[in-house]
Structures are given as C-alpha cells and as structure tokens.
Amino acid sequence: MKIIILAGGPEERQPDFSLFTGKKVIWAGVDRGVFYLLKKGITPDCAFGDFDSVNDEERQWMASFQLPSFEYDSEKDKTDLELALDWALGQNPEQILLLGVTGGRLDHELANIQLLLHGMEAGVSIEIRDKQNRFTLVKPGLHTIQQETDFPYISFLPFNGPVTGLTLKGFKYPLQDQYVPMGSTLCISNELVNKIGTYSFSSGILMLIKSHD
After folding, report:
1. Continuous segment of H or E residues that includes residue 166
2. N or C: which end of the chain has fewer CB within 10 A?
C-alpha cells in the first residue's frame, strides 16, 4: 500500500500528478492540500488540518464533498503535516510520498524535510517529491541506483552527522571509502555514467537527492 500526502505548499512546485494516475494509492490532503486535490479531480481518502490557509468560500466548497476529516486547533504541538504523517505511518504502508511540502516558508520546509526521520525510525520508506526534486533518507549498507533521464543529477548529503566510508561506483565522479562531514558540498550534483550504479557507506544517514534543471 502506498499513501500520498499533499500539503499546502506552492502549487507551482507540485510534481506531475499524472505520474500517480491509475495506481492504487491512498490519498490524504493537508490543509490547503485538500483544496488542491479536489481541484485536480482527486477525492482524498481523508483530510487533515486547521484549514487556516483556505478562505470561507473555499472551505464551504471543500465541505460539500463530506470528506473524512481530522480537524485540529491552530495552536498545537505538531504541524498538520506531522499529524497526517503519524496517521499514515499507523496504516503500515509500504511507502509514503510527501508532496507540496517544499517552497514557501523556510521553517516549514526544513521541518518537513526532518520528518523523513519518522519513516526511518518506523522502517517505512518516505520520499519527498516536487517538480524538480526527489529525496529520501538512506541507512548504511550497499545500495543500487538506476539512471533516470528525467532526474539526471544525484546528490548525497550527510543528514544528522558525518558519513563514513562512502563509495560510489558507476558515477561520473566516483569515490572510495570517503569521509563526508556535515557542511561538505563534495557530493553535490553527481551523475551516473552507467544505467545502474552502486553506493555504499558504513555509518551515518545519507540524504539521497535526485534533481533536474
């Protein structure tokens, strides 16, 4: 089971929704993300938020769909997105995609990226996608990666501390047993020269980012 959560980030940053049509997924909307989904003809399975980012007219229109909703006060200890993610993890999915969580306010964007840790702790793959990027967190070990023409640039960033033993094979800029500290730009904007490559590391957490211009 895959769960896709759309938050209320800038609409122009959203990925191509046709990539998800015809696939069996559970959709959830967060705050203005509910409005965006309904505009695109997608009826979410549930809605989360205090809905302070929609006006009265938009909220009345959304209410006409009678969606299963989890409404919260605006003053709370977790963001609407974190509450939605808690619910999604409780459904024991194979994967969760977070859309509409980049752009806009920087504090929200940085917090949203840190929410990827929840998936790592729960053993569930969580990926953030927008129009230009895809990123997720990876544990130590040996991993295979495939070339994607739509997302040719691949970057590796230490997430919560240094990464040790990073080895890249099949890349334009290979590495062997490299130590990568926090704040390093060494592994920004690499590319695969083969259709399939591998990367491995012995300790730390890596953020894997696939991007295009």
Report:
1. strand 163-169
2. C
pLDDT at residue 74, rounded to an integer: 72
Cα-Cα end-to-end distance for the chain? 31
Pairing status of strand 206-211 against strand 196-201: unpaired
Query: Whole domain around residue 201: which residue ranges?
Result: 137-211
Overall pTM surpassing 0.90 (yes/no) = yes
DSSP lists the bridge partners of residue 163 as 180
Q: Are residues 98 and 67 in the same domain?
A: yes
Which pair of structure tokens corresponds to residue 89?
Answer: 């993890």
Q: List pLDDT tens digits, range 94-133.
A: 999 999 999 989 999 999 999 999 999 999 999 999 999 9
φ, ψ for residue 41, nearest 5 deg? 80, 15
Query: DSSP state, 43?
Result: -
